[in-house]
Amino acid sequence: MSEYQIINPATGEHIAAVAATTLPEADAAIARAHGAFGTWRHVSPGDRARLLRRFATLVDSHVEELAQLEVANAGHTIGNARWEAGNVRDVLHYYAGAPERLFGRQIPVPGGLDVTFAEPLGVVGVIVPWNFPMPVAAWGFAPALAAGNTVVLKPAEWTPLTALRLAELALEAGLPEGVFTVLPGDGPVIGQRFVTHPLVRKICFTGSTRVGKQIMAGCADQVKRVTLELGGKNANIIFADSDLAKAAATAPYAVFDNAGQDCCARSRILVQASVYDEFMAHFETAVRGVKVLDPTDPASEVGPLVSAAHHERVSSYVAQSKVAFQGSVPDGPGFWFPPTVLETAGPSDVAWREEVFGPVVSVLPFADEAEAVALANDTEYGLAGSIWTRDVGRALRVARAVDAGNLSVNSHSSVRYWTPFGGAKQSGFGRELGPDALAAFTDVKNVFISTEES
Ligand code: NAD
């Protein structure tokens, strides 16, 4: 495609056209990023930190503009979009603290001095999905830049606007040309070019498991480093001894937030059989109360789906299932989809097994702890999950037994920028955020200096 037509998902209106990067343009940008690496890696830690802080400060003074842009481009509610722009600022501030604290080690050895260095890798290719265009981009570019790498970033085809604005702010903050470049383009063309280009030393990919597998296979050819943040089919496990009213009141938001377009969406609810009916009564009231409104309205809790094509995909899952009950959507144009609870016959149901990526949830009862863990683990994914119980021993047992990267007890929160985030099984590998992310953007180099007399 030579140009992307950007549509406001809430209104169906055309809001912008964005030129798609061509292959020669991508190659030139990668060459510039490689050239810039030669200087950026040697910028003193203090100066690199100051530049990243200035970038963070500029993002802070543009939170409202970035949020409004995301509402128009991705249909996110204004409340969520403000949080997302604020998250970019916070992640930049957090990693601005890194350049001055990235130490090597000195390991005692006989006959000399042995030291290690945390070396930056070079040009890092960051590939971003459309569901959280701002935070996911920052989780890649901020630690990569802090560690001394340069970055080429490809936003998703449907949602390039905020990434392009962030690149302008980076330049305004004083990051040298070529250090951070945003290249809108087709995944199989520009994304693949990052994978095959020998000067791109690492791929930081967030997206579907299907594409993640292709990226991993492509990286094998050059033994290119890769981190993969992929899909999820996360369990929300509710035990009979939990605060049932709270678990039921929050469960809709754990899956319908961002219209369910969230890798951490708790789209499989598991309820202990003894409280199933009680839970479902509270849950239905809560689902019917979710405010699906114009995303510019500060009261809006859920906006539209991102595109007509994605609306069709979510609809096809619901068409294969039986609906138990649904919330409501506004009248008029836009890619609206009501919060939907499905009747689930069993764990072989297609909507129970596959990532629907819309405001759709399935519920199943379980008898005891062992069955809850077995059902939670009966998926190829392993990203996130919640456990509701008042028994702290059970909470820890289940958290250790569920094979996923991020679990929350009596909470649905998965992301705090100072703690690690990432998946197990086919949800990917490598960790973003927190101190662990820095290791993913550096290599350990060992140097031995002989102290023997010549
Ligand atoms: P996607 O895999 O279709 O696309 C993701 C990105 O990869 C886009 O920029 C796309 O253009 C690019 N791409 C597509 N084909 C490519 C190829 N052959 N080579 C290189 N790049 C290519 O995913 P999506 O539909 O944009 O996003 C939704 C998916 O992302 C869901 O599965 C969701 O769970 C996942 N996700 C995961 C996380 C996480 O942290 N684990 C976070 C957000 C989204």
Give an overview of the whole structure.
There is one protein chain. The chain has 454 residues and is an alpha/beta fold. It has two domains: 3-230 and 423-448, Aldehyde Dehydrogenase, Chain A, domain 1, CATH 3.40.605; 235-409, Aldehyde Dehydrogenase, Chain A, domain 2 (3-Layer(aba) Sandwich). Helices cover 40% and strands 20% of the residues. The chain is built from 15 helices and 17 strands. A seven-stranded mixed beta sheet has the order 11-12-13-10-9-14-15, with helices on both faces. A six-stranded mixed beta sheet has the order 6-5-4-7-8-16, sandwiched between helices. Strand 4, helix 5 and strand 5 (150-154) form a beta-alpha-beta unit. The longest helix is centred in the N-terminal third of the chain and has 19 residues, at 78-96. The mean pLDDT is 97. The structure holds nicotinamide-adenine-dinucleotide (NAD). Nicotinamide-adenine-dinucleotide (NAD) is lined by residues 127-132, 136, 154, 156-157, 187-188, 191-192, 206-208, 211, 214-215, 229-232, 263, 355, 357, 383, 423, 427-428. Keywords: Oxidoreductase. Belongs to the aldehyde dehydrogenase family. The active site is at residue 229. This is Acyl-CoA reductase-like NAD-dependent aldehyde dehydrogenase.
